[in-house]
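Re-run with default settings, no changes from the original entry. Doing this only to confirm the output is reproducible before filing.
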Amino acid sequence: MSVPLPHPPLRANPRLAHVRYDIRGELSRRARELEAAGRDIVHLNIGNPGRFGFAAPEHLRQAVAAHVADSEAYCPQQGLMSAREAVAARETARGARNVSTANVFIGNGVSELIDMSLRALLDAGDEVLLPSPDYPLWSAAVTLNGGKALYYACPAARRHFPDPDEIEALITPRTRALVVINPNNPTGAVYPRELLAALVKIAERHRLILLSDEIYDEILYDGARFEPLAPLGDEVPTLTFGGLSKVHRACGWRVGWVSLSGARESLTEIHHALDLLASLRLCANVPGQWAVEPALAGPDTISTLTAPGGRLHEARRALVEHCAQSEFLEIVAPQGALYAFPSVRSAAFPDFDDHTFALELLETESVLIVPGRGFNIAEPNHFRVTLLPPPLLLREVLVRIERCLARVSATPRRHVA
């Protein structure tokens, strides 16, 4: 009797070798090992409000609870009509052109919709302009859908704003889309209207699609003003992404949306593609969709958190004040979103390595951060933290970070001949 040959190791998609997601990567796995051994780890790596005691607004919880019995069947592939009506009404009120319920898709969070949109848009080798630093899901989705990421720099020296001329210089005949993340994750930059208008003009000149990630649109500090991108484009085809996860503190409900706007004739093919992809996954999570209409039409529940005295504002203030007094850190104060992107002073750390420091901080001070290079920047001198911890806890954690930096700065450096 013949002995069956062992099955060869299963080969993963080779594109995954070019994908990184350090937010939940190697350092996060090490943090779980330390926690299993009894360590108490402070997780500054992820914007997960529920893990820091934030709760979804009560009127959203009530809306979901009231419709549990109505949520047991699949809904239309584009989402519940009430949810799409609410999104379309909000985008139309902001000035977006040709947004209707037919041009809104509800997804299992913005993450799913980013992947679906790029799958609908990209042919092999198509290029997508992405900010550097970016939210790494964008880079991953471009790569996994056969595209090529072209990064435009948003350095701290420019308050993390891009330069439109630099963006335009990157464009080739294969460039298909321009991604804008505003308010920005990880930097907290909020783009002024004139900058956004310049980006729209670039898209118009080069016939690019605009992909606008606006998940943090209402999380703003110290008078910063959010400008939606779609109304500035008028005819330019624009996909605008939003959801319940951040502004409404309902990450686990996995409810996001994308709205299509611009010249009607430019949207037909992408609409058909998205409709097909939405059909293939049947529908998005139904219960959470009942919260979309009360979220967008109901009371403002975020401003009290971002105004002076509010928990998010005070956490941000603690971080900015610490960096101003720090021997080692500097920062461009975030104007929006739930994160900050400090850097170490190059004079103090001429050979600083963000990943090495993040691991040292985790092992010695029980604090988990994300190295800056996890957001697709070349410089190894940044890291990202979330503003979600209570301000007193964040102040204590910043003392731990400063203490670790002091130790690292005092460590003799090994010189290679």
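The domain at 58-297 is CATH 3.40.640.10 (Aspartate Aminotransferase; domain 2). The radius of gyration is 22 Å.
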